[in-house]
Specification:
about 230 residues, two-stranded antiparallel sheet, alpha+beta
Length: about 230
């Protein structure tokens, strides 16, 4: 048995966000795509027993073509002047600023896999910030920059974004919250939440506006947690 998070877009209220529900399911060991997809099916079947449906796996192991396309390795960003095209993954890795170096701009022109595996990412110390085309981004809230980057890319790919708004939850079989922070399934769920609450256009009007929405959500989570402790 294994446990993985289910990311559920918040569709009511005034603050967009994502609820996280951990699901126990049968894990199928092995690195092959077929084994990963067996685990995806098992995770979704277990999730449906809790009342969540339909569910979309967001990764290269998805059984749904849209889910494969939404992988950060495959989701592409085209600059406004249409002179450069790169993946979300390459953009994210090339924007990291480390204690001892970076950002490594050349990674923007690498494939997703090459960018993620570049040895400099592990040799330059801790990540202290992000810089994307000259604009600085903080490392707190922890998923702020990744979510901003991913959701901007998703919004530009209308043929994908229009197909995910009716899903009730999202998963990423490769994501382990013990080892990682950013997650493409979480970002997809956040996008859907913003769409349903009618705040997507405002949130994407600037990075500062997006930051305010993320900060508001974090503050709400803290308040709810504190209230729960007091009850």
């Amino acid at each position: 048995m294994a446990k993985r998070p289910l990311f559920i877009p918040v569709k009511t209220g005034c603050v967009p966000g994502v609820e996280i529900f951990e699901v126990d399911f049968q894990w199928f060991p092995g690195m092959s795509k077929s084994q990963k997809q067996k685990s995806v099916l098992s995770l979704h079947e277990a999730s449906e027993k809790h009342g969540f449906s339909p569910i979309l796996e967001v990764s290269s192991k998805s059984l749904h073509e849209v889910g494969v396309s939404l992988s950060a390795f495959n989701l592409m960003i085209e600059t406004n002047n249409k002179k450069r095209v790169f993946s979300v993954e390459s953009a994210f890795q090339s924007s990291k600023v480390f204690e001892k170096g970076g950002p490594y701009r050349d990674l923007l022109d690498k494939s997703s896999r090459e960018a993620k595996k570049d040895p400099r990412l592990k040799e330059s110390g801790e990540v202290v910030g992000f810089n994307f085309f000259g604009k600085n981004f903080p490392i707190e809230p922890k998923t702020f920059f990744y979510d901003w980057l991913y959701i901007n890319a998703l919004q530009k790919n209308k043929h994908l974004s229009e197909k995910i708004v009716d899903f009730s939850a999202f998963t990423d079989i490769e994501f382990n919250p013990v080892k990682s922070i950013n997650c493409q399934a979480y970002s997809s769920a956040l996008y859907v939440s913003m769409v349903h609450m009618g705040v997507l256009e405002t949130a994407l009007s600037s990075s500062e506006s997006f930051y305010s929405f993320i900060s508001d959500r974090n503050e709400k989570v803290k308040r709810d947690s504190l209230q729960g402790d007091l009850l």
